[in-house]
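Quick one, T. Sequence first:
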Amino acid sequence: MYRLNVRDHFMIAHSFRGDIFGPAQRMHGATYVVDVTLQRRELDEDGLVVDIGMAGEALKTVLAEFNFQNLDDVEEFQGRNTTTEFMARVIFERLATAIQLGHLGEAALGLDSLCVTLHESHVAWASYEGEL
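Structure tokens:
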């Protein structure tokens, strides 16, 4: 399997509901480093997994929706704990849609899978991976 990774970051505020979260039930901030790994079994006709510039721009566009936002105020997330795991899936779904809409070029339609990893800190991360 061939893989290409692009990286960016975004900053958010949020709070969680539930005793399991302890002090994180209070409003707090997070700066996530985001790795997106695009995978395919065979390279495209140009010898690429996907155009790295287009992949980076698509990630930047998706993250711009959340950057400097209080996720507690995002209507779509009402009633949900916007955990690192949850946000990895949200970003995955938005990138998968961007790929299907051709925002990463026609060759990206040949991608087999995508993995989104959110690094909460230098010692903790969560990811979501799925087929395209």
